[in-house]
Amino acid sequence: MNRMLASTFSLSAAVLALIGGASAQTPLTAAPVLPSAAIIVRVGFQDADTLYNQGVDAYTKGDIAGAVAKFQAAIAKRPAFTDAHFNLGISLADSGKPEEAIKEFTWVITKTPPAPKGKLADSYHLRGRAYVALKQSDKALADFKQALTVKPDLTEVLLDEAAAYYIGQQYDAAITDYTKYVTANPKADPGIYNNRGLAYLAKSSSSKAEADLRAAIADFDKFVTADPAKNFDGYLNRGDAYAGLKAYDKAIADYTAYLAKKPNDAYALGARARANMEMKKYPDAVKDYTSLTSAAPNDVNARINLGIAQGLAGDSAAAIATFNRVVGNPPKASDKVALSARAQAYVNMQDWTNAVKDYDLLVKLDPKESTAYFNRAVANTKLKNYDKAAADFQAYLQTNPKEPAKAHLGLGTAYMEMKKYPEAVDAFSKYIALDPKDATGLYNRGAAYYNVWNGAGASAKKDPATKGIADLTAYLKTAPTDKKVVADANKLIAEMALDGGYDPKKALDDAIAANPKDPDPLVNRGVYFMKMNPPAYDKAIADFTAAAAISPKDATVLYNRAIAYVGKKDWKNVIADTNAALAIKPDYTDALVTRGDANYNTKTYAAAIADYKQFAALSKDPKDKAYGLSQLANASAANKDFQSAVDAMTQYIAAAPTEPNGLRLRGGYYLTLKKYDEAIKDITDFLAKPPVAGAKPEDVTASKAAGYFIRGVAYVNKEEFEKGGADFEQALATKPDPDYAKQGAQAYGKLAAKTLDADPMKAAGHYAKAIALYDKEIAARGAKPTRDLADAYFNKGVMLEAKYKADESAENLKQAVEAYAKYLEVGKMATPPITDAADVQKQIDALKAKIAEL
After folding, report:
1. pLDDT tens digits for range 221-253
2. CB 16: neighbour CB atoms within 10 A?
3. Long-range CB pairs of 836-841, under 8 A, 24+ apart, other chains included
4. How many helices (H) and strands (E) would you count in the chain?
5. How far is CA 20 from CA 2, 24, 235, 460, in A?
6. Residue 7 β-bridge partners
7. How far apart are CA 726 and CA 692, in angstroms?
8. In whole angstroms, what is the distance from residue 635 CA to residue 619 CA?
9. N- or C-end of the chain: fewer Cβ atoms within 10 A?
10. pLDDT band at 2 (very low <50, low <70, confident <90, very high)
11. 18 φ, ψ to 5°?
């Protein structure tokens, strides 16, 4: 029951994170054992009855093995001896033989004629418990539900069902069952409230809902109040709930009350220590961790957390002494946390040399320990070892960094000190991209550009000056309060103004005014207009047009104007400009793909296909080639040439093997070509692949649902209706869609019709699935009266009539009448309305007559 406090280190401060260990919460209160009356005594003169009664006597005396033997002997005499089977199941369960017990309870459940309701309910209940013992929670839950269906007042089942839900982490269901139980049993054991509280508490870990934590507290209140001396575990659980609400003062009070009963409880000491840490009561946390290290002297984590608390309490020397007791010489892999914490303590003492030594040890233990590289880089910066600092920042960036922005900032600073100004510009640019809100990045990059400008020759001064002025001007607009920094920025701008302007727009305007015949400033200003938010496409087009008039053979100018037309979705001019650019530069791949996209958007698919083919053939970048192939496949499919679409998508799949949607799309093409086996294989492979990193969850869900649907259609076309129905159900479960439900219902309906003559009961099960799916379709279509909704009711009625042929249950016909009636009600209001109302009414009347005869 120990939870530890670990830490994440940076050089500014120790950042604490709670790491959960084993749960300290009290176990669920067990469901009550069935009353002894479950062993039914029957007096008789036959040998089987005598053996049965002997079994009951043995069980009553605690001789479970003897009871098993007697009940088995009774069954051997009379195989259909229901009570003997039932009590043998109880005895086998008590003997730790749940598999054998299940067989006996199953016998009672499935016997003909059926067992009495009470015994049937108990059999489901007890079989459910046996399934729990086998960790087969789905079967257990099904049995518990059946027990309650047979005998709703058997509320004890709710406790077993709740416990199974809890174990399966289905906390809402567990809470519902506990609530039903206490509602039915107002004087329930207070432990039930504790159990429900634990369910609320466990649920809160994922829901993050304050309401769940408050509900848990209310239940723990009832548990503790019932008998504070006996139920003191409730203080611990309530303390955890208060901690979840960040009501750490109340959590501490509860942990203290619990510790009054169990003063050496490691978990409670750790929990109270964590709460004290959260409240920044570091001396109190030190006391708790000190007690914890005494109570659990071998708990390394407790000692590490003690050191962290000592450091935060301002006693870094004590923290280092504590960590010295943990860290080996040489340190082992298991010493990483303590070693990192000791390094942080040296940082807090500004002992940079010893901090570097500890980070050296960390890197040696684990060359992928990214935080150690970062912290060592900062320490080396403090020691003015800039080359080592730069190497460490680079190593950090290559080892899954959590704060890449700060690393680029530190790297840029190190490069500045090393006078590597172009490298500093690159590092600060990356920092700005990652943290655009921090104006410091603009100042630093502006200063780096200044140093590039200052060391450049006359012909190379304009670019760094313009960029440096732009950065520093943008920085000054943030109105920093540091007067020295403001003065320095203005000084740098004033010096660089000789080679540029104060901002990009002004510089561009001035350049164009000074030399109207130079196309480059016009092109650059056009790009500037396109990058505005929102983009000023018309102004950009005007500048590109002016540049094209000056330099009519410049394909780049025409391409840029085409991109501006793309922004306006003016596909006609996009095609005209890309045609002109390609006439000048036939291998201009960017123009090719842009024209292909324009042709695709205007549904000129043959032209789009030609462009995408040429683009894919010319592209050297694998991503560009993959894009061209995917668009080629899409255009071919849009052009109804599905074999060509398959061929192109096959090439795309080879070019982009980690992109799963190519398989889904090709599967759809195969389906259209009626190549069902190929479609099924592609979709199966697609569903087995992980989604692309960074994909939107809603896109992944929609894609998977479409995959299941395609495979379902393929299976149905192969008359493998059961597989098809299962896929439609999976599509529906993945993304609710009435058409998925409808297709699934039709599949199961066809399967049922196929099996009706050979196995009517099996067919009845398939019809039941079809009916359930029509119900889901109806629910998904909503209340608006449409022909689709009316048809769903009609189809449901057809399935119900068909199910009657399989199981001859009059209830099917009654429900069919209701479904047809809803068809008439909805269909008459639909647009257009139904035209077969009279025929359907005759069908309803005929069914009513048939029901009356049954």
Report:
1. 999 999 999 999 999 999 999 999 999 999 999
2. 17
3. 840/794
4. 43, 2
5. 8, 10, 19, 58
6. 16
7. 26
8. 18
9. C
10. very low
11. -85, 125
How far is 537 from 566, CA to CA, in rounded Å? 9
> Alpha-carbon dihedral of residues 555, 560, 561, 566, nearest 10 degrees?
130
Distance, in Å, from the CA atom of 740 to the CA atom of 617, rounded to the nearest integer, reads: 39
CB 645 within 8 Å of CB 676: no
Q: Is the peptide bond before 534 cis (omega within 30 degrees of 0)?
A: yes
The length of the chain in residues reads 854
State the residue for tokens 């054991």.
189
DSSP string, 314-356: T-HHHHHHHHHTTS-SSPPGGGHHHHHHHHHHHHHTT-HHHHH
HSE toward the beta carbon, residue 404, CA cutoff 13 A:
12
Lowest mean pLDDT among 523-532, 555-564, 665-674: 523-532
Rounded (5°) CA angle 43-49-50: 90
Q: Name the pLDDT band for 369 (thresholds 50, 70, 90).
A: confident
Containing 189, the helix (H) or strand (E) segment is none
CA 406, chain centre distance (Å): 28
Dihedral class, residue 421 (left if φ above 0, else alpha if ψ from -120 to 50, else beta)? alpha
784/617 Cα distance (integer angstroms):
52
- Measured CA to CA in angstroms, residue 375 lies from 255, 347, 356 at distances of 36, 9, 8
Contact indicator for 84, 75 with CB cutoff of 8 Å: yes
Place of tokens 């599509």: 731
Tokens of 536: 């000023």
What does the alpha-carbon distance between residue 571 and residue 601 come to, in Å, rounded to a whole number?
A: 8
CA distances from 65 to 69, 105, 682, 844 (A): 6, 18, 56, 61
pTM of the model: 0.46
Tokens of 368: 């992928």
- Residue 795's closest CA among 814, 774, 813, 824? 774
Rounded to whole angstroms, how far apart are CA atoms 796 and 772? 9
- Whether residue 301 contacts residue 274, with contact meaning beta carbons closer than 8 Å, is answered with no
Is residue 406 within 8 Å of 397, Cβ to Cβ? Answer: no
Are the beta carbons of 94 and 87 closer than 8 angstroms?
A: no
Exposure string for 94-103, b = 16+ CB within 10 A, e = fewer: beebbebbbe
Peptide bond before 98: cis, by omega within 30 degrees of 0? no
18 falls in which pLDDT band (50, 70, 90)? very low
Q: Using only the alpha carbons of the chain, give its radius of gyration.
A: 38
**113: preceding bond cis by omega (within 30 degrees):** yes
Helix (H) or strand (E) holding 753: helix 738-755
| Paired sense of beta strands 14-19 and 4-9, if any | antiparallel
Count Cβ atoms within 10 A of the Cβ of residue 812 and give its class: 0-12 exposed, 13-18 middle, 19 or more buried: buried
CA end-to-end span of the chain, whole Å?
64
Q: Which of 504, 529, 513, 584 is nearest to 551 (CA)?
A: 584
* DSSP one-letter string for 682-726: HHHHHHHSPPPTT--HHHHHHHHHHHHHHHHHHHHHTT-HHHHHH
- Do the beta carbons of residue 680 and residue 714 sit within 8 Å? yes
The C-alpha angle 172, 221, 291, rounded to 5 degrees, equals 100
- Tokens 């309305």 sit on residue: 833
Q: Are 343 and 316 in contact (CB under 8 A)?
A: no
β partners of residue 15: 8
